[in-house]
Amino acid sequence: MRDGRKDRARAMVDKLGELGVNISWEHVQELAGDAAVGRPHIAQAMVDAGYVKYPKDAFDKYLGRNGPAYAERFKLSPEDAVKMLVANGALPVMAHPTYSAAKSSRGEVDELRDILTKLKNAGLVGVEVYYGDYTPQQVERLAKLADEIGLVPCGGSDYHASGNPGEPEPGAVGSPMSTYRRLLKARRKPAARR
Q: Is 152 helix (H, G, I), strand (E, B) or coil?
């Protein structure tokens, strides 16, 4: 998976070069450090080189799904990804479920029930309910859905330290302490009983 991310990032840097946006692959790798290299590192390299003002601009103009420098990545099915995470001791949580619906052909949040149920059967433990961009109505709807399906209502500020204007700060949004207790309890369960 890590090699696939590196190959994808390298392909995007090459595509950017073909578009006249010349950033250094070495600088992208330097920005990634020990982490898996990805689009945020490429975006930051574009900021550093003066091609865009903010990382978000790099995504909007070049690196987004329909951008001219976008490169597809290796993908697992959602069920296989959840199973892989569980097999490695993780507690999988679905992030941004409303974004997932909005950025695909799946429709409204209410249609997430089937998806979340399938993922829970594969080992999903939680779903993001508390998030800075959500309206109170979305939070209420997602909390109810999580409760009905038996998922832990998780959340956070989604802080990326990317320097975009209006970026939520760490701790600005979060889930209640009951989420922490439920995740801790789920973590202590033997894998076979999850």
A: strand
Cα 101 from Cα 141, distance rounded (Å): 14
N- to C-terminal Cα distance for the chain? 25
Phi, psi of 130 (to 5 degrees): -100, 115
Q: Cα–Cα distance between 152 and 60 in angstroms, integer? A: 33
Report in angstroms the alpha-carbon separations of 87 from 5, 18, 117.
Answer: 21, 41, 19
Q: What is the rounded distance in angstroms from the CA atom of residue 129 to the CA atom of residue 127? A: 6
CB-based burial of residue 16 (10 Å sphere; 0-12 exposed, 13-18 middle, 19+ buried)?
Answer: buried
User: Which residue segment(s) compose the domain that 90 sits in?
Assistant: 78-193
The Cα–Cα gap between 126 and 116 comes to 9
Coil, helix or strand at residue 75: coil
Residues 98-141 pLDDT 10s: 875 544 444 454 578 999 999 999 999 999 998 877 888 999 99
Same domain, yes or no: 160 and 184: yes
The CATH number of the domain holding residue 23 is 1.10.150.650
pLDDT digits (tens, 9 = 90+) for 74-101: 888 999 999 999 999 999 999 888 875 5
- The Cα–Cα gap between 67 and 104 comes to 16
Q: List the structure tokens of 187.
A: 């973590």
> Would 49 be classed as within a structural domain?
yes
pTM here is 0.58
